[in-house]
Design goal:
The longest helix is centred in the N-terminal third of the chain and has 33 residues. By secondary structure, the chain is an all-alpha fold. The chain is built from eleven helices and no strands. The protein has one domain.
Length: about 325
């Protein structure tokens, strides 16, 4: 019972923090584009995408999401073509493995999709082949985009690193090419839109389950509880939640989607109290589960040590 409470709190914290970040960033983009107040932008974004999730059929939601994905691929391709003009291939041969562990929390946060798996299984009517294809393809495509984008950033930085006033690689790209800015805004908005839809569906379904409310698009309470808090909190002080994202990536995501699932699988498979142990679906057995739990715990512990050292440095 206690572990279920911890899982529920972690789930809610991660999803609300991410939704706040999505609303805050999208409202910035809309405000910069249309020149309307921030609260109007945030409300417009929440109502538009929340309305699609609430009123739209599965076919409509799928069509909207497909349109957004096509836009993402188009804008991403344009961004890569424009940004890679100063690409230096020799720079891609350089490596800094000591810095790699610091990227794990962000990678974990970027590839969180487990929240929509129950909705995905329902929409695909439990068809294992379709579910597997959706998960594999849905992970492979963003991974490919991440790798290409990382290659462009790492290969282009030497050509634009002369601007010492800007430390953010994206800002360096913006400063080197005026065309990059609008493309980045379009790509960011489309990417946020697809993520926002997935998190709205996942969190509203979770809340309906948690509160024992009937799930479905004709039941407004789960959607109101999903849409309103991020909208309000993003307008109050979004900076707090952008800082919380770092915490969520390290502790929330790695605990909820790294430690807990592996520990639960271990318990289901190898507990002495079970009369008929659950057969494994994924190969690897104890070794695979141990690697997943150990890797997640290693990152968490290293981040705790780093945070403690930083606090000591402040004193």
């Amino acid at each position: 019972m206690q572990s279920e409470i911890h899982e529920s709190l972690s789930y809610l914290f991660i999803h609300y923090a991410l939704l706040v970040a999505y609303v805050a960033r999208s409202s910035d983009i809309i405000t910069n584009s249309l020149g309307i107040p921030l609260w109007e932008s945030a409300t417009l974004f929440s109502l538009a995408f929340g309305g699609i999730c609430y009123f739209g059929s599965q076919r409509l939601i799928g069509a909207v999401n497909g349109f957004l994905v096509i836009g993402i691929l188009t804008s991403f391709t344009s961004l890569v073509v424009v940004a890679s003009g100063n690409l230096q291939w020799s720079s891609l041969l350089e490596a800094n493995f000591a810095a790699a562990p610091q990227s794990i929390p962000i990678i974990a946060l970027s590839f969180v999709y487990q929240n929509v798996v129950p909705v995905l299984c329902t929409n695909l009517e439990g068809n294992l082949s379709k579910v597997r294809t959706a998960i594999v393809a849905g992970t492979a495509i963003p991974l490919a985009l991440f790798l290409v984008w990382d290659g462009v950033i790492l290969g282009t930085l030497p050509g634009i690193a002369g601007n010492s006033n800007v430390s953010d690689p994206l800002e360096l790209l913006r400063s080197s090419n005026g065309t990059v800015g609008p493309i980045v805004e379009a790509f960011s908005f489309l990417a946020i839109g697809t993520s926002y839809i997935g998190f709205i569906l996942g969190l509203s379904d979770f809340l309906a389950d948690l509160l024992k409310l009937p799930s479905g698009q004709n039941k407004p309470l789960p959607f109101l509880l999903t849409l309103l808090p991020p909208l309000v909190l993003s307008l109050l002080d979004p900076e707090i939640f952008f800082k919380a994202l770092d915490f969520a990536g390290t502790y929330g995501v790695l605990v909820l989607f790294g430690v807990f699932p592996a520990a639960m699988s271990w318990s289901e498979r190898y507990s002495d109290e079970l009369e008929a142990p659950v057969p494994p679906i994924v190969p690897g057995g104890k070794f695979t589960l141990g690697v997943v739990m150990g890797g997640a715990l290693l990152v968490i512990v290293s981040e705790i040590v780093k945070d403690i050292m930083q606090l000591q440095g402040l004193h």
